[in-house]
Amino acid sequence: AKEKLLELIEAAMRGEEIAITQDNQPVVKLVGIPPANKKRWPSKAGSAKGMVWMSDDFDEPLEEFKEYME
Q: What residue ranges do the domains of the chain occupy?
């Protein structure tokens, strides 16, 4: 692994998981870290349609706060 470390790192960056062994036992796993700017959720407009519900009286004043609204 010492002699091929750069190659192993490049392979991990391509998405491969690299296991390094000692005495035929895996001791280290190299995996690439995804780029920070990669989006996890779609940013397409309307992609959450049907997933959110809001009651018709959502913006009505609460009875408990009526005295503060006067």
A: 1-33
